[in-house]
Design a protein that fits this description.
Blueprint lengths: L1 H19 L4 H10 L4 H22 L12 H20 L3 H20 L1 H11 L7 H17 L4 H11 L5 H25 L5 H21 L5 H22 L1
């Protein structure tokens, strides 16, 4: 009962965080590991729990979606699916002991990406004034970020927004639309592969899915009352604490 309460609380807050700023996986993964779920299974199960939020975000921006320069929307979709599948496949073949050692570094990297997200996006938007990346480089970048997302979801949104800025996209609504579409697609195919590989614990995943969806709704309602800088600081602090705890357990 205590474990269930921890998972529901973590998913509720994670859904709220994802709705307003991102960083929900900083809570779902550690909560699952704390309750005794092996790290690889915890990563897959937490990703399943957050999938509805990605799908809802993609639907909400459906009218704003626009492929970045150098890529067609069809190419974006195919690369997202391919990358998500490759990343999920890599997770399935990663031994638990190895993943346990990788997790704190992934959490630390994701926290850094979140902390410096605004600067990263500004740099990406400034870099686009040079020569536009070739189609092959654009495709390689989209594929690499999608593989990362299929393997480990943390910081995915920041990476995608930075990539889209580098590719020359300037309309923020279009960037968010494409980001949400890619996130939803690569997560959906990754979840299917996780399920086929038997690394999803469905009971906690479904419970957390409901809590995360409710948290997303509540987070959207409450977001206007909290200063963005405090939200960001809280998420960064959470990520750092979780990374340290995983380093100590590795």
């Amino acid at each position: 009962m205590f474990d269930t309460a921890i998972l529901l609380a973590a998913a509720l807050v994670a859904g709220a965080l994802n709705a307003v700023a991102g960083g929900g996986s900083f809570l779902t993964l550690p909560a699952l590991v704390f309750t005794g779920v092996p790290p690889v299974v915890a990563n897959a199960t937490g990703t399943v729990a957050l999938l509805p939020g990605y799908a809802a975000g993609a639907w909400g921006f459906k009218d704003d979606m626009q492929a970045p320069p150098g890529l067609s929307m069809k190419a974006v979709i195919l690369l997202a699916l391919l990358g998500g599948a490759v990343g999920a496949g890599l997770l399935l073949v990663t031994p638990e002991a190895a993943f346990r050692k990788i997790v704190p570094w992934l959490l630390l990297a994701a926290t850094a990406m979140f902390a410096f997200g605004p600067q990263l996006r500004q740099w990406a938007m400034g870099a686009q004034h040079g020569a536009a990346p070739s189609r092959s480089k654009a495709a390689l970048g989209m594929l690499a970020v999608s593989v990362y997302g299929g393997y480990f979801n943390g910081g995915l949104g920041i990476l995608l927004l930075a990539l889209l800025g580098l590719l020359g996209q300037t309309n923020l609504h279009a960037m968010n639309g494409t980001k949400n579409l890619v996130s939803a697609l690569l997560t959906a195919i990754a979840v299917a592969i996780y399920a086929a590989g038997g690394v999803v614990q469905w009971q906690p995943a479904l419970l957390m899915m409901v809590a995360a969806t409710l948290g997303g709704y509540l987070g959207a309602r409450v977001a206007r009352k909290i200063a963005p800088q405090w939200l960001r600081a809280g998420i960064v602090l959470t990520g750092l604490v979780m990374a340290v705890l995983f380093f100590l357990k590795a």
